[in-house]
Amino acid sequence: MNIIQRHPFTPGEILQEEFMEPHDLSQQKLAKLLRVTRRRVHEIIKGKRAITPDTTLRLGKLFKMSSTYWLNLQMKYDLWQTMEKDSVKTDLENIHPLPLAA
Fold it and tell me: What is the pLDDT of residues 54-64, one digit of tens each?
């Protein structure tokens, strides 16, 4: 039932490798462009902080792309993390789909 077979990259890893590095952006410079704290950017990159709707709007505008891209990355990562928990796996095994309504 896994969404993907391997551990997904965090949104912060993608931000750093696919967006910051090609634009030669430091955490400080990105924070300034986004009008957020450097700490916020640092925590996102290190996977210690999720990308929020506020951050996704800022990233979307800065990089001229859909804001939903960032939310989808975060959602996919969060879902994978949740599905890897043993307690969730056990619960899911014991949930049986309802029959289709007539």
Answer: 999 999 999 99
Does residue 100 contact residue 94 with C-beta atoms inside 8 Å? no
From CA 70, how far away is CA 65, in angstroms rounded?
A: 9
Nearest Cα to Cα of residue 47 among 86, 83, 22, 74: 74
DSSP H helices in 19-98? 27-34, 38-45, 53-62, 68-83, 86-93
Query: If you classify domain 11-73 with CATH, what class do you get?
Result: mainly alpha
pTM value? 0.81
The contacts of residue 3 (CB under 8 Å, 6+ apart) are 76, 79, 80, 83
Rounded CA gap, 70 and 57, in Å? 9
